[in-house]
Here is the input.
Amino acid sequence: MPKYFMPTMLLSGKNCIKRHPRHFRQGKKCMIVTGRQSAVKSGALTDIKDVLEENGIEYELYDHITGETGISEIYALGKMMRANYIDYVIGIGGGTTLDAAKAAAVYAANDIKPMDIYDEDFANSLPVICVPTTAGTGSDTTQYVMMMLDDVHNRKSFKSDKCFPYATYLDSRYTMTLPIEVTRNTAVDALCHAVESYLNTQASAFSDVVALEAIRLIGSCAPHLIAGKVTEDDREKLLVAASSGGMAVAHTGLNVVHAMGHQLTCDKQVPHGRANGALLVEFIAWMAKHDIMRAVDVITAFGSDLPSLKRFIDRAAPVTEEITEKDIDKWIEQSIADGVKENCGGTFTREDERLIYYNALVNKERKFTKWQYN
Ligand SMILES: [Fe+2]
Here is the structure.
């Protein structure tokens, strides 16, 4: 039976933090978790400090999160929160930072060992407020948390309804300073989330609504993304689209694109959004063989046809790394071990996966029609 559970309070629009301060009144003392730059550069940290001070809330700042922050550091952060009687957590940043804030909030509320978090049966979490400074991750509206384990190539996720953020503030001003390349990569990532949710065995009428709207919003920004002239209005749409993509994925999980793209990121260090985007059109084409109507829904929501969608990805987030068939063989083995077929439907075989990788990354002579590849 379709169900929908999304307990996160979403607040959006310019100055939404200052206009809606009451959600920060979650206790006497909070911990702000962020990286070294984006929270300051975007202006989000100043706005939050102002609101906390105006409301007499004490805060501590942990601004050491980087792409290499792993489970040990996050565990230590959680313990520090417990020792310092922190009542709630504010995460400011992209997906890695928001996930670190969410995981540390679990460690702060539960006396568990680091890897116990993956049992997903912890009793509670401190409330987390998310303030994204990128428009892609969707972590601000999901129950998922991804953490790095012992090295950058080894990341593992867990999920719990306790990990839905308490509130998320979406202010596009905080994404204005993002470089265009990051803006494009994160937009393509958000597009993948929404498409993988819509083309998914777990999709329902509820997840479809938010997934299609996310695709539509990103499609409406496509010309400006390609031209490198992203307006304030576009930034607002992209931020809403990313959170909507998260809401959709929270109910369906992802599909094979992320599982397959993950191999490119691990093996060739292709950024997350670009790696997934490279595979997206071939995945839609494969899904079209099994459910043409839903594949057409996705493409029309984006406002184009399959060749135009491919042109958008090729221009906005091209994969230029040299990929060989030998690489593909290795990735198939690994992604099968990662459970690539979950949520796929149809009969997704090893050969299908090989063809998606091959056509997306090696075969430059691909011919296509309006809705399907020949
Ligand atoms: Fe993603």
About this structure: The pocket of fe (ii) ion is lined by residues 189, 193, 258, 272 (CB under 6 Å).
